Please model this.
Amino acid sequence: MPAYQLRTLDKAALEGPDGPVPLVDPRGVAMIAMLAVAGPAGASEDELLLRLTPDATAAAGRVELARIAADINDRVPPGAIVHQSRGYALIAGSVALDVTVLPSDRATPEPRFLADLGFEPTPELDEWIAAARRRVAAPEPATPVADRRRSRGALVGGLAAVAVAGVVVFALAGRPRVVDGFAQGDPLIVADLMNTTGDTLFDRSLATAAAIELQQSARLRLYPRSRLADVYHRMQLAKPDSVLTFEIAQQVAERDNVRFVLGLEVRSAGTGFRISGRIADVRRHAVVAEATEESATPAGVIPALDRVLTTVRLRLGESVTDLRVRTAPLSFVTTASLEALRSYSDGANAWARGDYPVARELWDRAIDLDTGFAMAYGSLGSWYYYHHDRAAGERYFGEAVRRASRLTEREQLRLTDRYLGYRGKLDSSVIVSGVVAKKYPNVSTWYNYGTALMEAGRFTEAIPALEQALRYDSAHVNSYINLASSAAGRREYQRALGYYAIAERLDSAALFHRDLNHDWGGAFVRVGRWSEAEAVFRRMAAKPGLTERGLGLRSLGYLALWQGHVREATGHFAAAVEASRQSRDPLAQTRYRLLLSSASRLGGDARSARVQIDSVITLVAAPSLEPRFLADVVDQAVRAGRLDAADSALRILTQRVDTARKADVVALNFARGAILLARGNADSSVSLLKAAVRSDTSAAALAYLARAYESQNRLDSALATLQLMGHSSLFGNPGQEDWWRAPSLRAGLLQKLGRKDEAVEQLRLFLDRAKSADADLPDVADARRRLAGLGSRA
Model:
């Protein structure tokens, strides 16, 4: 149960673990109440302004709302309210209400709801309170045990009456005897479901449902499946992907110092089904608790499993009070359709193995079977955002949020965290993921928290969070991978390589997934181990999948360019284009054609560079091209002299910008500044490029700003801007070309400033970088001529 509660009946007040929590502005209780009733979607800024600050100007009202929210967050650590693009929302699980929020209005209002706010409400707020009183219900008086048993049966039959708070009354004829030796936070190994019915419908669907039910508990912690591969290796199992039977699970428990194992089984019982659970204490080598329920039909299997797991949680020492607070019916928080649940579970499995098209098909099928399946909508939202289709991602996340009352508290928080992260609200995502990690501590929640910190660029904080995840599972591969990424973010590349080495030992295939291979090889490049980087990239390029092949070829192209081997790079990028063309991936094809255009131009083939830009312009309408990718199109089109193509890309970019996303605004400023500079409008371009550079110090943005300053004859400013690129390698991103050429560009400015010796030094630095470059590379030949003209030898 949340440590903070808003009392709304009669006199309203915020209560904390130590008693009443005084707020600076009494309107804070009204704000919390409005957001709690609104649910995970939150309330729009316009609605809050109308109800809480109707007499203030819009600007002044926004300041007041921000101040009220900040005061609440200060007093409800680590925060209760997040600011979204169109308003505010209450973080699930941060503050509880003393009333139940109903899914629809009822005939009789609750007159005690916000009857005394401690201040005189405005007419607009009074209007909202009057409407909200039909949406809430005061808790019912305690009922005898026998009545509770009947109540639960009615609830399973009529789920529409379940409230957002998820309060459920249990059918308990008496509290079962608690298993000796199970302590708060102890791990529990859940064996694979034993299904002897012959109906595969039950296999993965019931396992998923069981995990969701057990994860609601604050008392137990599910043993991480990611540890099994290591334990199976130590057990010398012939098949490391063996089914985790109840017996094997007990052997795993003994090997990994876990005391308790849960086995679940579904079998035929006449024309119906029997669902049972067994708890084994491996120290005593005995089954110490059992529970059995029956169902006459397949539709009743999930409720029967629910009852079995309720008994399991009681036997492991969870209190009846905690069960009431932390449990909602499985058929409500997942789905009543076993077919839908199987499709959802199979989709999650496909996603985990990287089979994304199959995952989408299965999740689509899940919502076709149950249009109220919130978890499936959320997964589809993640799928589309991951594939850079924002519009579809927003649509599916919106559907998930509208059905968020059909999620457990933990799943509500996970949905909020994912949605915030994909929408670029990284600071808010960090807050929510931190709440989840502290409230439901395990390897996955601490990993998610560390990942949110890493994605927000807070690498120093991410490292201890990811290390905390490893305390729950020392073999968690993804934690080591993100530790490597965080170390690289701190430019600690040797340390990053150490983490990558551990990840590869644990799972030899883990670093050949998407961009992980590129990051791993990039760390080798940055410490001068080029041959090892090339070996990593060639292994990726040899993969049978078109996507993996394209990514490996792209990395090989970057490595060749970094050494000045432009013709070799051109070959790799051309092969990557062909792989992406066969896979019909417009985003990958756009990226690889832009790289091919860049390499062609560096090699002196301006015509081929323009041909690639012409091909790219036919792809930019694809929804997977977000503003940051379209800004790259503008960049390369400008460099190739195709301003008409740059204008076309800019028009689409402008239509897709979300002004609430800083990265979008940066991309727009950069693209506009690049085009204005190309058209000779240096004064206007400088202000736009400076705005971009304030948030994006990429080499490309710095190079354009330096050129803009040079056009204004502000040579010192141009030189200072180029100095920001530094001398550390900017390997493997679109700015690599500018970083590689930076010493030559600095030399040109120094010559104009009359600083001959420094110009010579920079030209020698450039030629040292290009010492193995193609002999006829235009940039290299130009640098040699300039160096000779300064009376020096290369």
